[in-house]
TrEMBL record, chains A, B:
<protein>
    <submittedName>
        <fullName>Transcriptional regulator</fullName>
    </submittedName>
</protein>
<keyword id="KW-0805">Transcription regulation</keyword>
<dbReference type="InterPro" id="IPR036388">
    <property type="entry name" value="WH-like_DNA-bd_sf"/>
</dbReference>
<dbReference type="GO" id="GO:0003677">
    <property type="term" value="F:DNA binding"/>
</dbReference>
<feature type="domain" description="HTH hxlR-type">
    <location>
        <begin position="8"/>
        <end position="109"/>
    </location>
</feature>
<dbReference type="InterPro" id="IPR002577">
    <property type="entry name" value="HTH_HxlR"/>
</dbReference>
<dbReference type="Pfam" id="PF01638">
    <property type="entry name" value="HxlR"/>
</dbReference>
<keyword id="KW-0238">DNA-binding</keyword>
<dbReference type="InterPro" id="IPR036390">
    <property type="entry name" value="WH_DNA-bd_sf"/>
</dbReference>
<keyword id="KW-0804">Transcription</keyword>
Length: 126, 126
DNA sequence: CGGTATCCCATTTGATACTG
DNA sequence: CAGTATCAAATGGGATACCG
């Protein structure tokens, strides 16, 4: 059986950039799992994220309807992010990835280490 | 309840670059679902992939123990890629992403379109 | 507090041409 | 057939400083 040339339609996840595979979106979703969070709160577990990148991430998520952004008109300002139903629907996926990693990351890392020295593209070693 | 600063350990999927979120790996896995495939076979459904990028993708997958590469010493050459058990274990994840997209991509795209005109970072419109 | 504004770098992806 | 080689473009992510 040969592969279908139209196996991957044009709206494939890889064509339409649905940003779950980026560096921070998955972690942001998990941060919001327990309820609404402020910008500053998110920066705590997301230790290495810069404000610029966190803003970009949240704006993209807001644009895609994964989170809502609510700015309370107070002083000092208070901005709260919350998962939408759409965003919440991604939690099982995030968790599935996490579970896979827990179960298989060791094997993957071992495989990666094994292929350190040997780089012969030659016909399989005997 | 405040967020745990150590919520994301250093071996988090985002820290150790496990390449499933890249452009082609997921699709390659699905191409190999039905059994071993040759390099040229993979290029058919993966229409827009260049040989260079497909090679890079396959090499990375091989290094991580997701596929095996078997070069038969014939003329013309014949090279066959096959999913390992580790790689096969990713199929449920890939499928879950696919299912999510089938069910929610429309909603996401609509949300994205809605946020086209309006870019006010202002306190929620009345 | 919740961001912006710049500037910069690394990685990823692609176009094109060529080869054992 | 199954790749390499070379070059270029795009994207993502980050460092640093500043602002209402």
């Amino acid at each position: 059986m040969s592969l279908d040339p139209d196996m991957f339609p044009s709206y494939c996840p890889s064509s339409v950039p649905v940003r779950i595979g980026d560096k921070w979106t998955g972690m942001v979703i998990r941060c919001l799992e327990g309820g609404p969070r402020r910008f500053g709160e998110l920066r705590v577990p997301l230790r290495r994220v810069t404000p610029k990148v966190l803003t970009e991430t949240l704006r993209a998520m807001e644009r895609d309807g994964l989170v809502t952004r609510t700015a309370h008109d107070e002083n000092p300002p208070r901005v709260v992010y919350e998962l939408t139903g759409l965003g919440r629907g991604l939690l099982p996926l995030i968790d599935a990835v996490g579970t896979w990693c827990e179960n298989n990351l060791d094997a993957l890392l071992r495989a990666r280490e094994r292929h350190q020295g040997l780089r012969p593209t030659a016909p399989a070693m005997q």
